[in-house]
Design brief:
Rossmann fold, elongated, alpha+beta, 199 residues, single chain, disordered C terminus, two-stranded parallel ribbon, 2 domains, 45% helix
Amino acid sequence: MESSVLQAIKQLGIDEMIEITDNISEADGFLALYSKLKKNSHIEAVAKSREIPIFVTKSTSLAQITKAIRALVNQHANLSKKIIEENEATSSEMIDALEEARLAIEQIVIPQGKSVQLLPRPPHIIQIQIGLIKKFKLKWEILDQDPTVCLRILPLQSGIREKTSVDVVDGSIKVKNLSSSDDIEGLQNGVARLPLLPE
């Protein structure tokens, strides 16, 4: 079967894209003859446990093997495209979040002396926004609007004291040095604001 696989790879012109390996842990895809896979169910179990896609052919004919390899390559290409798109989406969201914070600071917080509540963002994006706010030497508070979290940028003359640092733990934000729950101050919009102590 290996000679047919090599021939199919050469025929498809993807010699530089595919490498054959005997180590299943290194594989991006698993190509097997149906009759052999049926007799070796433990191999199938290992592939599934490692989330390696399995491509099965009924025979070792060049046509069937070529079809299976083409399917493997297409799936791998689609997965790579999805990862790239997700990374681009994260990058775009980061740029949007920074621009939102910058405009809020430059157009409202500093010139008008008013606080601005930013849109809910993932914890790692909020960390980046906080970095920008620090550069302007402004204060902020974290509003936990279950299941989302967002920032409110405070003007310099605000009486709110400096905040503690923010940790990202398992995708959620953890604020250090909170006072007891008896000190939680309610906001007009019904969201609880957690008072933060100075660093």
